[in-house]
Design brief:
The protein has a domain of 171 residues. It is mainly beta and 251 residues long. Helices cover 5% and strands 41% of the residues. Strands 3, 6, 7, 8, 14, 15, 16 and 18 form an 8-stranded mixed sheet that branches. Strand 7 and strand 8 form a beta hairpin.
């Protein structure tokens, strides 16, 4: 069938993390060849606990489609991004979309929502460990194409802290950060068939990260702290993704 790119991505510089997912495998009755299967969905994939999937952002379906043939798909991802000289955590709590056949038989998709945690950046705003705390949160700038093979998401990373104002960020709507986190070959595991839960590792070593924008007097300090701008090849995003789905007649 087709591949979905869910996520990925984003991190606390992070990362709709668009992560390519083999969705045809997810619809199979048994685990696909080449993947391993865990006995319980409450186990651990690597060192990351299996999350609870939140289906609240499942979008309304197009008119005239069969709900039993459409799935609401949710991807969750956690990990770290190394940007310049800084290592930052990311946590995508839910990247949600729906897909299925349109009335004319062609494949359709509807975006549902992107939720990512606001996390503290290591260290302090002053860079000497004694300044005020700095927080980062990714925001999706455009609706991703989950049928795309590129696995790309466009994001900005809002920076909040004392004296930073409301518009301080890495990346802007006009010039966002592009993240393409690919699934690591051989890392796919089926954790459960009912409910369906698949996990895999993701990796992006190509992202380029621009200077901060809208940060006023803190601009130079923040760029120095994160080593920005940082070109493609100097940064790395890695983490663990989990994927699940429900057909609309099960919601």
């Amino acid at each position: 069938m087709r591949k979905t790119s869910a996520f990925l991505a984003a991190t606390a510089v992070a990362a709709t993390i668009a992560i390519p997912v083999d969705a045809s495998a997810a619809s199979a009755a048994t685990a696909p060849t080449g993947t391993s299967t865990a006995a319980s969905p409450t186990g651990i994939a690597g060192t990351t606990p299996v999350p609870t999937f939140d289906f609240r952002d499942c979008p309304q379906l197009p008119t005239g489609v069969d709900p039993a043939k459409w799935r609401c798909e949710v991807l969750v991802a956690q990990g770290t991004a190394t940007v310049g000289g800084a290592t930052l955590p990311f946590d995508f709590t839910a990247v949600t979309h729906a897909e299925g056949p349109l009335p004319d038989g062609t494949p359709g998709q509807v975006f549902g929502g992107f939720r990512a945690a606001r996390l503290p950046a290591p260290g302090r705003q002053s860079g000497d460990g004694h300044g005020p705390k700095l927080w980062m949160q990714p925001h999706l700038t455009t609706v991703p194409d989950f049928y795309s093979q590129s696995g790309a998401m466009t994001l900005t990373f809002q920076l909040t802290g004392p004296h930073l104002g409301e518009h301080c960020s890495i990346g802007t709507t006009a010039a966002p950060v592009q993240v393409a986190a690919a699934r690591v070959p051989g890392s796919t595991q089926w954790l459960s068939q009912n409910p369906p839960i698949i996990t895999f590792q993701v990796l992006d070593q190509t992202l380029a990260v621009p200077e901060v924008s809208g940060c006023g007097r803190a601009t130079e300090e923040l760029n120095r702290r994160f080593g920005l701008p940082s070109p493609s090849g100097a940064n790395r995003l890695s983490g663990t993704a989990f994927y699940s789905f429900k057909t609309y007649d099960q919601l």
